[in-house]
């Protein structure tokens, strides 16, 4: 009976530790996946010398790459092509329990609908922040994409950079 009690206690401790670990890992996985797609989008923009976008579907808790190409080949041209002809990457959903809190672009914040962020051929990007949350646990994580360099900063909380004003440069 003592052996059975020890095994039971060990199983309980492992299950409690596992349950505490899984939520944070889901948020970390979401951050890693989104960052990998953002880096790949930036690389594609630079290597192809074309403008690419990332579309955040804040209502559907998903995101995808928007390419400058049309289905079947060729460049997408705003005045000649319809959006239905554009070549898109596949939607990537956030893991269960992880949601978009807000996306900030150039000082404006969005918490619903589609939002687009740009990556240009020189490696620059729309100055934007993507805040992911786990409502059940109160966890937040911000991925910040720097405008001039297209590089990333990470914040373990909500972080929205305010747009600079004219007086900031005097």
**Average pLDDT reading:** 88
State the helicity in percent bands: 25-40%
Annotated CATH architecture: 3-Layer(bab) Sandwich
Radius of gyration: 20 Å
Provide a count of the helices: 1
Fold and architecture overview:
With 170 residues, this protein is α+β, with helices and mostly antiparallel strands. It has one domain (2-169): minor pseudopilin epsh domain (minor pseudopilin epsh fold), CATH 3.55.40.10. 28% of the residues lie in helices and 32% in strands. The model has no long low-confidence stretch (mean pLDDT 88).
Write out key terms for the chains shown:
170 residues, 10 strands, alpha+beta, 32% strand, minor pseudopilin epsh fold, 5-stranded antiparallel beta sheet
At a glance:
By secondary structure, the protein is α+β, with helices and mostly antiparallel strands.
Please render the helix and strand layout as text.
Elements: H1 2-48, E1 52-57, E2 62-70, E3 86-88, E4 92-93, E5 99-105, E6 108-110, E7 114-119, E8 128-134, E9 139-145, E10 152-155
Antiparallel strand pairs: 1-2, 1-7, 2-3, 2-4, 5-6, 5-8, 8-9, 9-10
């Amino acid at each position: 009976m003592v052996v059975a009690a020890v095994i039971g206690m060990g199983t309980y401790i492992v299950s409690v530790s596992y349950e505490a670990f899984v939520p944070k890992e889901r948020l970390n996985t979401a951050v890693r996946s989104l960052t990998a797609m953002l880096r790949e989008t930036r690389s594609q923009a630079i290597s192809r010398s074309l403008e690419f976008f990332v579309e955040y579907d804040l209502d559907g808790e998903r995101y995808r790459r928007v390419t400058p190409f049309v289905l079947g080949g060729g460049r997408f041209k705003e005045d000649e092509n319809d959006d239905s002809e554009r070549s898109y990457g596949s939607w990537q959903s956030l893991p269960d329990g992880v949601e978009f809190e807000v996306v900030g672009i150039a000082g404006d914040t969005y918490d619903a609908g589609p939002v687009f962020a740009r990556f240009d051929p020189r490696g620059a990007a729309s100055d934007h922040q993507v805040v992911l949350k786990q409502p059940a646990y109160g966890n937040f994580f911000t991925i910040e994409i720097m405008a001039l360099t297209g590089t990333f900063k990470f914040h373990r909380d909500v972080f929205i950079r305010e747009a600079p004003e004219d007086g900031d440069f005097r």
